[in-house]
Amino acid sequence: MNNTIKYKQQLMENGFSVVDNIYSNDEVQRILTAINEADSSKETFRKTNDLFAIRQFLKEIPSTIDLIFTNKLKVMIKEIMGDHFFAVKSIYFDKPEASNWYVSYHQDLTISVDKKIELIGFGPWTNKQNQFAVQPPIDFLENITTIRIHLDDTDENNGALRVVPKSHLKKIYRPETINWEHETETTCSVKRGGVMLMKPLTLHSSGRTTNGKKRRVIHIEFSSQELPAELNWSERINVSEFMH
């Protein structure tokens, strides 16, 4: 992991970084097997022709936790984020081979919490499938680091993320105000078993699948920041518990 300093620098400067070979093919297959064996009838499992998603993924399929938090991933988390980060949100995305699912440019501006209460600086609120999400003050979003674990080779032909480098440094950046004369777009191709690190304020989008190949990704957000006492992260999992 002697390149970790480089990955951390890329993440801080550009808002994203791609790290290859975090998982072996066997490790990826074990994760996929655990997902395939899960009970998909729950309301947190969302299935359409274009997308299969599992919200609160680590809570819903706890058998994946030990498979995901391998020594390699734990070392990377520690070296890039430090000792005090915990997982606060997890989603599994399966973009099928014939998917026309397209996501336009956006920032990830909400966090998942356990209830809705009136708090200065927190809002607007949404409630999907009995899960509360809220836009917090910007310092909470700046503190979060997302790890996207790729279970398939992913490139521009099957929905790899496109990002606007350095856009995370511009606070709230409305997509309709992007000036393409000054901004650039980068496609983040990631090999099976690799991960993409991203700051939530990095503008990102995802294209339709055109090559008939799946794109399965586990998206986990990490924070080291505690919420106000009245509010809890809905999915908080202490990574330190796996750091053995």
Blueprint of the fold:
Elements: H1 4-14, E1 16-19, H2 25-36, E2 45-47, E3 52-55, H3 57-60, H4 65-68, H5 71-81, E4 86-95, E5 103-106, E6 111-113, E7 125-128, E8 131-134, H6 138-143, E9 145-150, E10 161-163, E11 186-187, E12 195-198, E13 204-206, E14 215-223
Antiparallel strand pairs: 1-12, 2-3, 3-4, 4-14, 5-13, 6-8, 7-8, 9-12, 9-14, 10-11, 10-13
What's this model, at a glance?
The chain is an alpha+beta fold and 244 residues long. The chain has a single domain (4-242), classed as Jelly Rolls.
Can you give a write-up of this model?
This protein is 20% helix and 26% strand. By secondary structure, it is an alpha+beta fold. It has one domain: Sandwich (Jelly Rolls). The chain has a seven-stranded antiparallel β-sheet. Strands 5-13-10-11 form a four-stranded antiparallel β-sheet, with no helix packed on it. Helix 1 crosses helix 5 (71-81). The radius of gyration is 17 Å and the shape is globular.
